[in-house]
Predict the 3D structure of the following.
Amino acid sequence: MTAKTLQTLLRLLAMGFLMCAVLDPDRVWGASEETNKGPQKAKASTWAEHVRTMQAVSGDLSVQVTALPEGTILWEYQAHKPLVPASLMKLLTSYAALKEMGADYQFRTEVWSDRRPSQGVLPGNLWVKGYGDPYLIPERVWLLAQKVRAQGIQKVLGGIYVDDSAFEPPVEHLCLDSKCDRPHNPVISATALNNNTVTVEILPGSGKAAAMEVQTFPPTDYVTVHQDWQARGKNPWVGLVSLGVGNDGRETFRIHGTRPAEEGLPAEYRMNIQDPQRFAALTFRRALKDAGVQIMGADTGARSVPAQAYLLYRFESLPLSDVLYGLNRYSNNFMAEMILRVLGAHVYGFPGSTAKGCRAVSDVLTRLGVPVNEMTLDSGSGLTRTTRVSAAAFNTVLKTAHGDWDVGPEFLASFARSGEEGTLRKRMKERSFDYTIRGKTGTLRDVVGFSGYVGNLSGTAYAVTVIMNGVSNPWDAREALDAFVTDIPRLASAKSP
């Protein structure tokens, strides 16, 4: 597989996360920006005027602009005041992971058994034990099943179990808003297949009698779908809701609303699942069946690997540098939280946890000289209102990474680019023609932020971080922020402030 093909697959994966449920509110603000532009405002022409404009649309503000590589501060305002960074937090998680684990770090998933196979038959049970791979997508699960089949195993007499003891707690559901079933509020577990989500796909019917077909992805025996359609009206709509896990251990989803017209198909709707361990076990069971392995036992679910078990196969992920390609560019909460816990385990030992991960990130920042009172960390993704970080702390990381050839190129490659792709695809287009803006956005209902680089091929570069809290109108706040960032080259070359 070429590097270009790999990047394409990663980009499609990250974009797939956004098809049916927004992983980060940054994407919402970019969805229909042309319809939200108000009357033209007078443009700020100095550092101070820009800051006043941003102050007018926020309750609190932290800003710093630094010239690179020397680190000269060109402008700052309350730069050392910690504020809620929202998804900017992913930059700190990413940088700390690269420094502590290395760009080539690979996450692992193991398959164990309590019996040795003999003549193609495994007389015992199979276990899947994950160690936090954030990229265990259906294609990789299929490949893992093929690897097990390649060990000569044709029949398993026992059941399939999942061991999530690499994380503490084994399963954790993060939810910041009322949409807890949507993937931007991720379900975290050490063995997380397809990001602990399922997609319900509506496809055109194959015959005249069937207007459409409904199926789930990935293929799994964990999910059943109940259809409840109404007659078409003037305002067509489709809803998807979980009815919970039944006594049979399967989760039922109800898809309802007005039956979609065929010209609007195919359509997809993505949801979190409620029982990650049983979902992983039943999905892997299906993948083994498709690989030609018979599973005779009916038992599935959560169970620890026995002490005297035999390792059948160790499956390694893509390197960390490739995983980060989708994390920052498309602001993936699930990936950030998984990496945070693996980072904690890597530094302080398994099981990984939020506390260990945040401690590891804090240790990295402290070594860079970030004061302890400028950071309060309790998240890897920024999906919280209790994390606090200053603009100066982010710029310290940006400055250090800019001159760090061990991790700097991989760190920079994970950023979105203005006007091109990711969360900046529709933003900051009115930049100077020879400058490129690469960075990370951060958005919550009342938070707007940006942290990244403004640079050109001549070697001129600036690190900039803006964190706006207490925002009442995100559109106005984003407009003020974008105008400031795109004006930095001109401001930096001006003789007076």
Summary: The radius of gyration is 24 Å. The chain has 13 helices and 24 strands.
